[in-house]
Each structure stands twice: as C-alpha cells, then as structure tokens.
Amino acid sequence: MIDVQNQYDARNIAIDKVGIKNIRYPITVLDREKGFQHTVANINIYVDLPKEFKGTHMSRLVELLHIFRSEVSLKNFSNILKQMKQHLNAASAHIEITFPYFIEKKAPVTGVPGLMDYTCRMIGTSDHNGKTDLVLEVVVPVSTVCPCSKEISDVGAHNQRGEVRVSLRFKNFIWIEDIITLVENNASTDVFSVLKRADEKYVTEKAFNNPMFVEDIVRAITKELKKDDNIIWFSVSAENFESIHNHNVYAFISSGKYP
After folding, report:
1. What are the boundaries of each domain within the chain?
2. Staple partner for 109: which of 56, 58, 151, 198, CB 3.0–4.6 Å?
3. Fold (CATH) for 1-104+119-130
4. pLDDT by 10-residue block (mean), the chain, 259 residues
C-alpha cells in the first residue's frame, strides 16, 4: 500500500511539532509507598517533521504509548523520548503527561483515612542535539486564612481553599510525595478528603493561628526550594479562590531563566 506520509512535500517548510493531543491512556507511575500506582493520563505527544516529508505516522506514537504505559516515570522519560525519535525517524521529540496521583491521607486527629488526588504533569523534550529537558509539575490544594482579615476583625477571619503549582528541574530523581509535603507544610493548613468533628476543629484552629497571604506561601516555598542543591530550576505559584471577593488572588515566583 502507498505510504502517503512518506511522500515528498515540495513546500520546503519544516514543522516544529506534529503528533497527537489529548489522548486518554492508562499508565503506571512510581509510588513511594506502594511501588507502583495505576492511573489514567491525558497525553500530548509530538515529534518534528522534516520539510521533505508530507506527514508523520500518528499510529506509531500510540504504539509507543502502549509499550511504555507499564511504567511512566521521570527515571525512564529520556528513554521514551529516544525511542520516539528512533521510531519516527525524527530529530526532536516532546511529550506531556498529565495525571491524577492518589495518596492515602489520614485525618489529623482521628486518623480516619481517605484518598487525596493531586494533579501532576511530566514534560519531556529531546532536541536536535540530543539534549533532554525534563520538568515535573505538581498542583497541591491548600487552605489559607487572610492575615489582614484576622487583624481587622473582632470575630473570625475569612478563609478559602486555593492551589499551589510547583514546577521543577532537577539533577536527580525526586518523589512527587516530597513536593506535596513541602507545599502542605507551607500553607495555613493542608486539605483533607475526610474530616470528623475533632479533625475539623483542629484544622480550622491551625489555619486561624497560621494566616498567610499568597505572597507568604510562594516566598516560604521558594525559601525551602533554594536550600535543595538537587533543584536546578523552579517556579511556584499560589492562587486563592476567594470566599468574600468576586476574584481570585495570585502570586508567582520563578528562580530565573533555565540555561
């Protein structure tokens, strides 16, 4: 049969990225407590296309997903990108894998367990020179109490749920759980899936005694990340879904341009 994708294209225009987007696929990721965890990811996967070819072989990208779905981790991302380039005869490759990551979390007083889900994203690129760039991104829900509201109010203070987004480049492997713990330790309080009355009292009072602006959160996390020699680049943002305003509030810090 005729291979249309491999036919010559006379327009003399190379394409930076061509591939498949928003494909849902079951994957297995590393879990520090249990070894592995099964989840479902949303995946974007691309390669470059030289100017002389009409198209790429999209089905080969799906074939690669099937091969590597049994273990998707930062440890073997470089190999996945290498195989993409070889399988499609491409000079560069790019993949983005977004998935919910579940951790069993116990209520702070009663110890009742529940599952918390955290949105994670792994982004990998292998360029024309064979240089690999990997980024891990984790989104962590938090709860905050407004310092200003607490200061000016005779009774109570407004509080809200928010989310913190941390993106990292690093020298050696890093666990998703470590990022989550870092963020949760630097908010007014962390968020739980199950809380009994004793737990709710504890969490409410803990947050009230630890009021934080979004500015406080990103600065506190930045201070901790700067201490870690394994981190070579990072960005951190905090967004509060305000309970008494018709807007969200936001703060962002980046460690600088990645070389």
Report:
1. 1-104+119-130, 132-259
2. 198
3. Urate Oxidase (3.10.270)
4. 56 88 91 92 91 77 80 78 87 94 97 97 93 96 94 89 96 94 97 97 96 97 96 97 92 82
